[in-house]
Specification:
single chain, mainly alpha, three-stranded antiparallel sheet
């Protein structure tokens, strides 16, 4: 974890009653302030993104150079490939040994953590939490989940076998005791890793950030995480007082209390008792409308998600359009399941190049987003920016400028003014202003 030279860290580790370890502020933190940033101890590009994301800088590109040996790792250029080699050389040998099979993301990340611990950096940053201290939660897992992790642990052993045979003594001396057991290490990874997102909040990889694993969950958190490449930035979205705990959301919070609690218990092994979960004040709006109609939307979601995963955009768009028409005015736009279907219709229309239809769906999502994200949130900011781009393309210049301005108010807090996405947003606003001025001068 990093802070500016000569400055005291704005956060400290503490024991939080009922939660275990946590992070809290050592001084007042203003809304929009960058609390801290960190590079991962280990990270890897998600399997589903291997062909489109650079395995060094995590930039998405249409054309990438492929590693000639493992046939899996891809890079922007030779510069990225050379910089990545020190971390990739051991992985490359392991990947070659498994061809044509590919290890899962969690297995690749666990192996990268092993290699990172065997080759520690010359300059060590001050970590508040070591990998050895991370919880595995094996004792609270169901037998079924343990069996699934045991299979991953067996894959990890097979995967690193080529390297492990050469490094057996080094691994015993360099790795913490709990990390020498493959099952324990895989469990730590699955419970503590973060999804690395790009500027559009699309998943590109996974990584482990030891100190930031101390952050506890809240369904209405006072901090959010955004990424620049693999660097994680923690930003405050509320004013935070000295000794106040810092929280993030481990999951997408736009869901019902019961759904959030079930996901948190299954994945992170605790029952959330935050203020939002106790109040359930949004449930009425989320389930508004005629139940028989919105249940049809809810039941269709797994099939729609499958179409999205397959990138079957035409069928997805047709299915969403049909479902939304059938629901009609009996289910308002703020209904959770209508909102999810509308969001998927927006994605499909964009991929199909049906811009007018995409804009219509995008506009329908905005009132719900304003209701469900009372604090500045990256998801809300990115959605506004997306709608603004569609309005700009359709030459609704003044509407686009309004959407970009609203997005900027949010994103200067959630991303900071220097983030590449915020910079892009400022360029879009200036383009709109110049086009409006040009129109006025022609009148």
């Amino acid at each position: 974890m990093e802070q500016k030279a000569g400055m005291a860290s704005p956060v400290e580790r503490f024991v939080c009653p009922g939660k275990g370890n946590g992070l809290r502020a050592t001084a007042r933190i203003r809304r929009g302030q960058l609390v801290t940033s960190a590079e991962p101890l280990g990270c890897c590009v998600s399997n589903k993104r291997t062909r489109e994301v650079c395995h060094h800088c995590f930039t998405r590109r249409e054309t990438l150079l492929r590693c000639s040996q493992c046939k899996m790792a891809r890079y922007c250029n030779t510069a990225c490939q050379k910089q990545a080699w020190s971390g990739h050389k051991r992985e490359c040998k392991c990947l070659r040994s498994l061809l044509p099979r590919r290890p899962t993301d969690s297995v690749r990340l666990a192996a990268r953590l092993i290699f990172a611990l065997l080759s520690p950096p010359k300059s060590t940053s001050s970590e508040l939490f070591t990998l050895e201290e991370h919880e595995s939660h094996l004792n609270s897992m169901s037998e079924q989940k343990k069996q699934g992790l045991a299979q991953l642990a067996s894959m990890l052993e097979l995967y690193v076998q080529q390297e492990a045979s050469d490094l057996a003594q080094e691994m015993t001396s360099a790795l913490p005791p709990s990390c020498q057991d493959p099952l324990n290490l895989i469990a730590k990874v699955t419970c503590n890793c973060f999804t690395i997102n790009d500027g559009e909040l699309q998943e590109v990889g996974v990584g482990l950030y030891p100190s930031l694993s101390l952050l506890n969950h809240d369904c209405r958190p006072n901090c959010v995480m955004v990424f620049e490449g693999t660097r994680l930035q923690l930003r405050a979205v509320q004013d935070i007082g000295p000794k106040e705990e810092l929280t993030i959301s481990y999951i997408e919070t736009l869901s019902l209390t019961e759904e959030r609690q079930r996901q948190l218990e299954e994945q992170y092994h605790f029952v959330c008792r935050c203020q939002r979960c106790d109040s359930k004040k949004e449930e009425g709006l989320m389930l508004s409308g005629e139940e028989e109609k919105w249940r049809q939307l809810k039941e269709a979601l797994p099939r729609l998600e499958g179409l999205k995963t397959e990138s079957n955009w035409q069928v997805l768009l047709e299915s969403c359009s049909s479902l939304l028409s059938a629901a009609g005015g009996d289910v308002p736009d703020e209904n959770l399941y209508r909102l999810r279907v509308t969001d998927m219709a927006l994605d499909a229309a964009v991929h199909q190049g049906q811009w007018e239809e995409a804009l219509r769906y995008g506009m329908k999502t905005l009132p719900a987003y304003r209701s469900y994200y009372p604090d500045p949130h990256p998801v809300h900011g990115v959605q506004l920016m997306r709608v603004g781009k569609l309005q700009h393309y359709m030459e609704h210049i003044e509407d686009a400028l309004d959407a970009f301005k609203e997005a900027f108010i949010i994103m200067k807090i959630t991303h900071g003014e220097d983030h590449p996405l915020t910079t892009d947003l400022k360029i879009k606003m200036e383009e709109c202003r110049q086009e409006i001025d040009a129109q006025l001068s022609c009148r």
